[in-house]
Task: structure prediction
Amino acid sequence: MNTPPKWFYIVASIALIWNIIGLLAVAMNFMLTPEQIAMLPPEQQDLMKSTPMWSTAASSIAVITGTLGCIGLLIKKSFAKPLLLISIVALIVQDIALFIVQNATAVLGITPLIMQSFVMLIAIGLFVLSSKAKQNLWIN
Result:
């Protein structure tokens, strides 16, 4: 096994923090009380109530596998690559619910599309990084 360059650890560490923030965001969604939801505009309340369970599950899977994948990168384990791929697939499922089933842009505007595009680019970048790490024998 080869020693990864320092930038690899920096990128993987930042990505881990990013995914932990994602975990916190998903956890906060689960902890919203009916009173907190009632304080949202009616369109956002409807959007939250219409979120399919499979979308919520996909969101959870995406951040959990993304977080574990980043940990895998940091401890130089090859299980990072399949976990990061699962994270991408789960993001796609989540986005299908958000943009096709729920049409979130009609309610929230373009902001969720921009944010989800950014999230997807990061997820793809992490998968590419894991592929490069595997190819260069930085992870085993």
